[in-house]
Amino acid sequence: MAHRSQLVSMFGELQDKLDGFFQTIKGRGRLNEEDVQAALREVRRILLEADVNFKVAKSFLKKVEERAVGQEVTKSVTPGQQVIKIIHDELVHLLGQTFEPLRRSKDTPTVVMMVGLQGSGKTTSSGKLGMYMTKRGLRPMLAACDLQRPAAVDQLERVGEQVNVPVHAQREHKDPVKTAMAARDEARQKGRDTLIVDTAGRLHIDEALMDELREIKKQLRPSEILFVADGMTGQDAVNSAQAFANQLGVTGVILTKLDGDARGGAALSIREVTGVPIRFAGIGEKLDEFEEFHPNRMADRILGLGDVVSLVEKAQEAVDEKEALKLAQKMQSQQFDLEDFLKQIRQIKKMGPLEGLLKMIPGANKALKNIELDGSELKRTEAIILSMTPEERQKPGIIRGSRRKRIAAGSGMKVQDVNRLLNQFTAMKKMMKKMGGQKKMRGMPKGMIPKNLPFPPS
Amino acid sequence: MNFFKKIKDGLSKTRQSLVGSIREVVGEAKLDEEALEDLEEVLISADLGVETSGQLADRMRKRALREAMTGDDVLKALREELAELIDETKLGGDAYKPRDASEVDGPYVTFVVGVNGTGKTTSIGKLAARYAEAGRKTLIIAADTFRSAAVEQVAIWAERANVELVRGATGADPASVVYDGLEAAKARGIERVLVDTAGRLHTKTNLMAELEKIDRVAKKVIPDAPHDVLLVLDGTTGQNGLAQAKKFRESIGVSALIVTKLDGTAKGGMLVPIVRELNIPVRWIGVGEQIDDLVPFKAELIVDAVFGEEETGFLQGSLEEAAKRAEEAKTDWSDFDAIP
Fold first, then answer.
1. Mean pLDDT by 10-residue block, N- to C-terminus, for chain A (458 residues)?
2. Where is pLDDT greater, at B92 or B238?
3. Is the per-residue pLDDT at B153 higher than 70?
4. Interface of B with A in 147-166 (CB under 8 A)
5. Domain B101-333 fold
6. CATH code for residues A110-294
7. Half-sphere exposure in the Cβ direction for A103 (13 Å, CA)
8. What pTM does this model have?
9. Which residues pair with B140 in a beta bridge?
10. Where are the domains of chain A?
11. How many CB atoms neighbour CB A322 within 10 A?
């Protein structure tokens, strides 16, 4: 795998564009107002396309402009990189610097209330939060207070079962306030330290709903009211977030459906109008696909930079530095053999599902459109290599007809598959030779990653 | 049913705020560069997207050179320019047209698809109620076997609408549930089948493949099924709506849209790029939680939906015009009961 410095240099489309703007001022020393404004128009487009509210985008760009104009252009980076850094830093700053843990109340149970529009993912997030808390040694309970949507109570009960968190539900009446209060009593009796209250989703202009939520708040005095928002929301995010914030006083945000390809500019809008931190991110349908919100990653995503930081972290987790260095040296010195290839495959596998991994790379989605992403190709490739003798792995050149047949039979594959792998490997070595001369791997998202990965286009 | 009032009530927020904001920025003065920039922002704020908003603003810029425009003229011109951008003549004319119900022998099968939380199940409940009311023997296939209690949810809607239901166990293969459901539909002489599918993000290749499998399996029972594929879009969604529509269309083909949650403050402007670029018509809009809060929408009404308002003389006219067109198209409107 590539090193951190290489990965971080993948600034993608935005940097290319900004570098274009700043080409003329190289060597001039300072970023002047005109240059910065031209660049920021491009950034404005990017923010708006990411669904950042236009007013929020405007005030944001003003801040960036103030910071950028007059800055000295340092020699080590391009002006584009420098402006991106300013923009990125400002975005991270706005999105909230570090993760803030949930507040706890003196009385038990601590009450966390989940509110939001229909379909934003309150029930699923309630379950996920329950699981998250259990993992951290808390003893949560879920309260089924969405008595509006058909089968919402059933859903929360199932979710509770799956994450092994008890659910308080009442079917005899339709009073969410009473249910919430009874849930608190039950939590107390059963020694549960946290109560997560799932509420009905409705539009923010629905007065009856707001009254109901206000009443639950009044009775339960939650220490956190989390606004669950769909990460794909458009310009209207400011209106709904503001309404919930004004009328209920939300204390935090959970942003959901971030496993799609929406750039999630709503995050910035919501953060700006509510003034409260985004606490968690929903990143999949499964109940453990839930994480603490990382402003850094979100900033990259909004700017279309891909989730470079996460990728780097994942790579670092999975890759032994020394091993990686050895591999890199081997690649450059042309001694890379199938044994090394196998090691590489295993490192990639350790980093988790390929589909998720590749999505973090800017541009990779497009480039890899026709490639099988479920990792089964990796498994097959691994099987083929494992059916080779050590000698064959070190000197793939000796693998001729009968050996190919044997390897195919041993791995349960066809001879064509073995041929394909060997051709792929040869092509890869050729490319490494070429890449060896290049110091910077700027074209990586477009070129290197797909070709370098040990699975051919299907 | 007074569908037009429904549209009007439901969309009133869309219209008021958009047209209201346009009036605010345009004022009674001449349309100058500053006003044009503000206008573009208003369009962006309605989720029309950077590209469409920019193009509309450019068209208005050119037009402002030719003719002096203030207030109502600007709105009228905007309406015309948008109509031209969308190219109304092309609407609905494409390969993904739904099959006409009269041509279909046996059950008419509609797939309802979309990403998570857009309102598929609720829309199905409302559609089923409509068919039942029109006297069609209707069956819902509850093929969302993934989300907890999704089957229970649709079962409650089936009961409310008083239609039949075929359900799969949680975790069952949705394609096999659809297979069983369609067999049952044939055996029971069902006229309308609504298939509730699990919510899936359009970027998940494995889930999209699952949808394609459902499609293949359905064809084993009814070779020309599905006759209609409705994509449910959340009206509060931003620019990602286009990506959703694109991917679902590529995967299973989409014949029309249901746009939900338009009774809030969201403007639903992302419909414009979708209609423009993909030429997928809007067929239904969801404007509330009640069983009859799903109203038919004529593809051509999209311009009215974006720029219509009754306060002003011109817009009064446009609304009346829209109403008249809808009235004239009454036979077509009944199609919404005839063809789903």
1. 33 56 54 78 88 92 86 64 80 81 91 95 96 95 94 95 96 90 96 96 85 96 96 93 94 94 91 93 92 87 65 56 69 76 75 57 47 65 89 87 90 88 80 57 35 36
2. B238
3. yes
4. 147-150, 152-153, 155-157
5. Rossmann fold (3.40.50)
6. 3.40.50.300
7. 15
8. 0.76
9. B165, B194
10. 4-95, 110-294, 311-451
11. 8
C-alpha span between A336 and A316 (Å, rounded): 21
Q: What is the mean pLDDT of residues B190-195?
A: 95
Instruction: Tell me the pLDDT of chain B averaged across its residues.
Output: 81
| pLDDT band at residue B310 under the 50/70/90 scheme | very low
Assign domain B3-90 to a CATH class: mainly alpha
Structure-token pair, residue A276: 């409260």
The class (CATH top level) of A4-95 is mainly alpha
Using alpha carbons, list the distances in angstroms from residue A57 to A40, A268, A307, B46, B51.
10, 9, 21, 15, 16
Domain ranges across chain B: 3-90, 101-333
Out of A149, A266, A374, name the one closest to residue B238 (CB).
A266
Using an 8 Å Cβ cutoff, are A182 and A168 in contact?
yes
Separation between Cα atoms, residue B151 and residue A150, nearest integer Å: 10
**Under an 8 A CB cutoff, do B266 and A373 touch?**
no
Q: Is B201 on the interface with A (CB under 8 A)?
A: yes
CATH number of A311-451: 1.10.260.30
- Nearest-5° angle of CA B281, CA B197, CA B245? 30
Percentages (nearest 5) of helix, strand, coil residues in chain A: 55, 10, 35
Residue A140 DSSP SS3: strand
Tokens standing for A332? 């450059």
Contact B264 A233 (CB under 8 A): no
Using an 8 Å CB-CB cutoff, list chain B residues near A151.
149-150, 152-153, 155-156
Question: Does B93 lie at the interface with A, CB-CB under 8 angstroms?
Answer: no
Task: Order across the sheet with A290-292: list the strands.
Answer: A167-168, A140-145, A194-199, A110-115, A224-230, A252-256, A278-282, A290-292
Taking CB atoms and an 8 Å cutoff, what residues of chain A touch B203? 259-261, 359, 365
Alpha carbons B19 and B13: distance in angstroms, whole number: 10
Angle between helices B313-328 and B71-86 (to 10 degrees): 30
Q: Which residues share a beta bridge with B286?
A: B294
Burial of A104 (0-12, 13-18, 19+ CB in 10 A): middle
